[in-house]
Protein backbone atom coordinates (compact mmCIF):
# COMPACT_ATOMS: atom_id res chain seq x y z
CA UNK A 1 0.00 0.00 0.00
CA UNK A 2 2.83 2.40 0.86
CA UNK A 3 4.55 1.71 -2.45
CA UNK A 4 1.32 2.47 -4.27
CA UNK A 5 1.04 5.83 -2.50
CA UNK A 6 4.66 6.69 -3.31
CA UNK A 7 4.70 5.83 -6.98
CA UNK A 8 7.66 6.81 -9.10
CA UNK A 9 7.65 10.01 -11.07
CA UNK A 10 10.09 12.20 -12.97
CA UNK A 11 10.80 15.87 -12.50
CA UNK A 12 12.84 18.02 -14.89
CA UNK A 13 14.32 21.38 -13.98
CA UNK A 14 17.25 23.57 -14.98
CA UNK A 15 19.65 21.41 -12.96
CA UNK A 16 18.75 18.17 -14.72
CA UNK A 17 16.38 15.24 -14.39
CA UNK A 18 15.28 13.84 -11.02
CA UNK A 19 13.92 10.28 -11.07
CA UNK A 20 11.84 9.60 -7.97
CA UNK A 21 11.50 5.93 -7.12
CA UNK A 22 9.68 4.18 -4.33
CA UNK A 23 12.37 4.86 -1.74
CA UNK A 24 14.88 7.35 -3.16
CA UNK A 25 15.38 10.06 -5.73
CA UNK A 26 18.20 9.98 -8.26
CA UNK A 27 19.42 13.26 -9.76
CA UNK A 28 21.02 13.25 -13.19
CA UNK A 29 22.57 16.63 -14.04
CA UNK A 30 22.47 17.82 -17.64
CA UNK A 31 26.24 17.33 -17.83
CA UNK A 32 25.76 13.52 -17.56
CA UNK A 33 22.81 13.21 -19.98
CA UNK A 34 23.25 12.74 -23.70
CA UNK A 35 19.79 11.52 -24.71
CA UNK A 36 16.12 11.90 -23.79
CA UNK A 37 13.85 9.68 -25.82
CA UNK A 38 10.59 7.75 -25.93
CA UNK A 39 10.88 4.29 -27.43
CA UNK A 40 8.87 1.13 -27.41
CA UNK A 41 10.72 -1.94 -26.22
CA UNK A 42 10.48 -4.96 -28.57
CA UNK A 43 8.09 -6.90 -26.32
CA UNK A 44 6.29 -4.01 -24.60
CA UNK A 45 2.69 -2.92 -25.04
CA UNK A 46 3.41 0.80 -24.78
CA UNK A 47 6.27 3.17 -25.25
CA UNK A 48 8.46 4.23 -22.35
CA UNK A 49 10.62 7.27 -21.75
CA UNK A 50 14.35 6.79 -21.28
CA UNK A 51 17.35 8.90 -20.44
CA UNK A 52 20.81 7.93 -21.71
CA UNK A 53 23.82 8.87 -19.59
CA UNK A 54 27.43 9.36 -20.63
CA UNK A 55 28.52 6.22 -18.78
CA UNK A 56 26.44 4.13 -21.22
CA UNK A 57 23.44 3.43 -19.00
CA UNK A 58 19.82 3.89 -19.98
CA UNK A 59 17.38 4.64 -17.21
CA UNK A 60 13.63 4.58 -17.56
CA UNK A 61 11.70 7.69 -16.64
CA UNK A 62 8.49 6.81 -14.81
CA UNK A 63 5.27 8.67 -15.60
CA UNK A 64 6.43 10.18 -18.90
CA UNK A 65 5.08 9.67 -22.40
CA UNK A 66 5.69 11.04 -25.91
CA UNK A 67 3.90 14.35 -25.30
CA UNK A 68 5.72 15.09 -22.07
CA UNK A 69 9.16 14.26 -23.52
CA UNK A 70 8.56 16.71 -26.36
CA UNK A 71 7.98 19.29 -23.65
CA UNK A 72 11.31 18.34 -22.04
CA UNK A 73 13.21 19.19 -25.19
CA UNK A 74 13.55 22.81 -24.30
CA UNK A 75 16.00 25.02 -26.18
CA UNK A 76 18.22 25.03 -23.07
CA UNK A 77 18.32 21.21 -22.98
CA UNK A 78 18.91 21.01 -26.73
CA UNK A 79 21.76 23.52 -26.48
CA UNK A 80 23.32 21.58 -23.59
CA UNK A 81 23.13 18.35 -25.60
CA UNK A 82 24.64 20.06 -28.68
CA UNK A 83 27.44 21.59 -26.62
CA UNK A 84 28.28 18.26 -24.96
CA UNK A 85 28.30 16.40 -28.28
CA UNK A 86 30.49 19.08 -29.87
CA UNK A 87 32.97 19.09 -27.01
CA UNK A 88 33.24 15.31 -26.88
CA UNK A 89 33.79 15.19 -30.63
CA UNK A 90 36.31 18.03 -30.47
CA UNK A 91 38.42 16.14 -27.93
CA UNK A 92 38.36 13.00 -30.08
CA UNK A 93 39.44 15.04 -33.12
CA UNK A 94 42.28 16.58 -31.10
CA UNK A 95 43.48 13.13 -30.03
CA UNK A 96 43.43 11.88 -33.61
CA UNK A 97 45.35 14.97 -34.78
CA UNK A 98 47.94 14.46 -32.02
CA UNK A 99 48.36 10.80 -33.03
CA UNK A 100 48.91 11.86 -36.63
CA UNK A 101 51.50 14.36 -35.39
CA UNK A 102 53.23 11.61 -33.43
CA UNK A 103 53.30 9.34 -36.49
CA UNK A 104 54.79 12.17 -38.58
CA UNK A 105 57.43 12.80 -35.91
CA UNK A 106 58.22 9.08 -35.83
CA UNK A 107 58.68 9.04 -39.60
CA UNK A 108 60.89 12.14 -39.40
CA UNK A 109 62.93 10.57 -36.60
CA UNK A 110 63.45 7.39 -38.65
CA UNK A 111 64.54 9.43 -41.69
CA UNK A 112 66.99 11.45 -39.60
CA UNK A 113 68.29 8.26 -37.99
CA UNK A 114 68.79 6.63 -41.42
CA UNK A 115 70.69 9.65 -42.77
CA UNK A 116 73.07 9.59 -39.85
CA UNK A 117 71.98 12.80 -38.16
CA UNK A 118 71.54 12.81 -34.39
CA UNK A 119 67.80 13.27 -33.85
CA UNK A 120 66.44 14.29 -30.49
CA UNK A 121 64.19 11.43 -29.39
CA UNK A 122 62.55 13.27 -26.50
CA UNK A 123 61.81 16.35 -28.57
CA UNK A 124 60.44 14.56 -31.61
CA UNK A 125 58.58 11.67 -30.00
CA UNK A 126 57.44 13.23 -26.74
CA UNK A 127 57.43 17.01 -26.46
CA UNK A 128 56.27 17.97 -29.97
CA UNK A 129 53.30 15.51 -29.87
CA UNK A 130 52.38 16.65 -26.34
CA UNK A 131 52.50 20.30 -27.44
CA UNK A 132 50.44 19.39 -30.52
CA UNK A 133 47.84 17.66 -28.32
CA UNK A 134 47.55 20.72 -26.09
CA UNK A 135 47.22 23.05 -29.07
CA UNK A 136 44.71 20.82 -30.86
CA UNK A 137 42.57 20.43 -27.73
CA UNK A 138 42.56 24.21 -27.25
CA UNK A 139 41.75 24.83 -30.91
CA UNK A 140 38.97 22.26 -31.18
CA UNK A 141 37.49 23.34 -27.83
CA UNK A 142 37.43 26.89 -29.14
CA UNK A 143 35.73 25.69 -32.35
CA UNK A 144 33.39 23.14 -30.70
CA UNK A 145 30.37 24.24 -32.75
CA UNK A 146 32.04 23.03 -35.95
CA UNK A 147 32.35 19.56 -34.37
CA UNK A 148 28.64 19.08 -33.62
CA UNK A 149 27.15 16.30 -35.78
CA UNK A 150 24.57 17.57 -38.27
CA UNK A 151 22.09 14.78 -37.51
CA UNK A 152 20.30 15.24 -34.20
CA UNK A 153 20.27 11.48 -33.57
CA UNK A 154 24.10 11.47 -33.33
CA UNK A 155 24.09 13.89 -30.38
Describe the model.
The protein is an alpha+beta fold and 155 residues long. Helix content is 47%, strand content 21%. It is built from four helices and six strands. It has helices at 2-5, 66-72, 75-114, 121-142, and strands at 9-13, 16-20, 25-29, 33-39, 48-53, 58-61. It has a three-stranded antiparallel β-sheet with strand order 1-2-3, with no helix packed on it. α3 (75-114) runs antiparallel to α4 (121-142). The longest helix is centred in the middle third of the chain and has 40 residues, at 75-114. The radius of gyration is 23 Å and the shape is elongated. The two termini are 41 Å apart.
Entry keywords:
155 residues; alpha+beta; 3-stranded antiparallel sheet; 6 strands; 47% helix
Low-confidence stretches: none
- The helix count comes to 4
Question: How are the strands ordered across the major sheet?
Answer: 1-2-3
- Rg, Cα atoms, Å: 23 Å
Main sheet attributes: strand count, strand direction, barrel closure: 3 strands, antiparallel
Oligomer: single chain
Helix content: 40-55%
Could you say which overall geometry the principal axes of the C-alpha atoms support? elongated
In round numbers, the mean pLDDT is 78
Short description:
The chain is built from 4 helices and 6 strands, in the order αββββββααα. By secondary structure, it is an alpha+beta fold.
Secondary structure layout plus pairing:
Elements: H1 2-5, E1 9-13, E2 16-20, E3 25-29, E4 33-39, E5 48-53, E6 58-61, H2 66-72, H3 75-114, H4 121-142
Antiparallel strand pairs: 1-2, 2-3, 4-5, 5-6
